[in-house]
Amino acid sequence: MTQSGVYKIEGRSPLARIRSPRPVNVSASETTRCAGRPLTIDAMPTVLRVGPYRLFFFSADRDEPRHVHVERDANRAKFWLDPVRLAESGGFGRAEIRRLEALVRDNAEQLRRAWDEYFTE
Known about the structure:
Elements: E1 8-12, H1 14-19, E2 24-27, E3 31-34, E4 37-40, E5 42-43, E6 46-50, E7 53-56, E8 67-72, E9 75-81, E10 84-90, H2 94-106, H3 108-119
Antiparallel strand pairs: 1-2, 1-5, 3-4, 6-7, 7-8, 8-9, 9-10
């Protein structure tokens, strides 16, 4: 929480996904305007950081089976959690994907618990 009492989360607008692969820090209550209408910013809660990797959810993913996104620089991957397996990737080599799958598998219970807590609030 900042001094002003506003929680800071990592998030981005849907349009930012097209323009920039990097998240921006925004207030949880911050909105922007798109075509003259308020547009709420999607949250991307980070659930785990290990070395250069960030494991996170998109708040709009609630209608999909449990999964986690992994990011390092501009490289991304998505892993299903039940059971742990690669859903998609971009930029990572095969050896790194195997290491990431092991990382997700080793932390699967924590990731599943974080998913359930976040999406059942």
